[in-house]
Each structure stands twice: as C-alpha cells, then as structure tokens.
Amino acid sequence: MKYEIVIAKYKGKPIIVHALVLFALAYFVARYAIMDGVVMFVCYMVLILAHELGHAYYVTKYNYRLIKIKLYPIHGYCRFEHDKNYPVHPLVSAGGLIVQSIIVVIFAVFYLLLQLSESYTTLNTLSPLFDVFLFINLITIALNALPIPGLDGAEIWPYLINYLKKNRKTNKTTHKKPKTKFIKKSNQKENKQSSDKIVDIALMREKKQKNKTKLK
Known about the structure:
71% helix; 4-stranded mixed sheet; 4 strands; 6 helices
C-alpha cells in the first residue's frame, strides 16, 4: 500500500505505520518545543503500538489468526480472523487497556518516587515521558473504555454485565443451600426425638406388665 511503512514484525505479521502519523509529529512539535515535541511524538506512537500489541498478544494466545497491526496518528488497529460462530475471548478486546494500565502504574510509581525525593531537575527532564505515558495515557484509557461502537469498551462492558449477572445467580443459589441443610438437620433431630419417645413408651409398658405379673 502507498504511504505505509513496515517497521517491524510480531509473530511473523507486519507492524505498519501510515504516513499520516507525520501530522501527529507536526502537532507535538508545534504545541511544545522541538525536542520535547519529537520525544512526545515517539512516546505517543510507542503507546499506540503497546496498546495494539496487547490485543495481538491475546489474539495469538487464544489461537486466532493474526493478520497485521497498523498505526495511525490517533489510533491503531489489530486485524485478526476468528470463527464467527463463537464469540471472541474478552481478553482480546481488553488486552490493549491492560497494557496501558500497566504502563500507567509503572510511571505513576516512578513519578511519585521522584516527587518524594524532590529531584525536580529529573522531573523536568523526563516531563515529556510523564506527559505521554501517564497523563495522555490515562485520558486514552478513559475514552477507549467507553461503551461506544468501535471502541474496546463496546466489547468489554457487555461481557462484564453478563458476568456480574451470572455471579448474582450463583450467589443466590449458594445462599439457599444452607437453609435446606438446616431443615434436613432439624428433621433428623425431630425423627430422633420421636423414636426416643417410642422407645420410652415401650419400656414403660414392659415395666407395667412385669409389675402386674409380680402382683399376681
């Protein structure tokens, strides 16, 4: 295809960058200083790639056929094939958000450590990295998790709702089971008590008969 470059391969499948990413580079350079803009552009493209590799990892893990990964200025996509008679595993849809969340945790811890150590020069030097991998990353996670068609949230939320409904049903059934056991135990106690009473009555009758024979 025109205006596309294969930069690497994952599991033998191409990772393609479209020429439109140059618009993202122009935006970052215009918005920030030249060096900071270039660094932020590279970090941003790495973030998009990490998101798509998260999808690709679960695609190959669950034996779907990976075709390619493609990166654009604002988003990317991971194309794969699967049997349409069966639903796609939810982790395939959530894979990108999982990787992004891991990146957020790593950079949040690093950021807090630098704040606590009061190494402000290092914070200023690494600010383009924190801007992308922490702050922009959080925004993209929030947007991508929305239940809107075309976003990952559209596939994740229905699965989560069904999962919660199933858990509620199973919890209700498990709460009912001890009641039946209690009823069974109480019935067993009642049966034992009634059998004991019958034995006592029989013994009393035998004693009365013996006393009668002695009086005779």
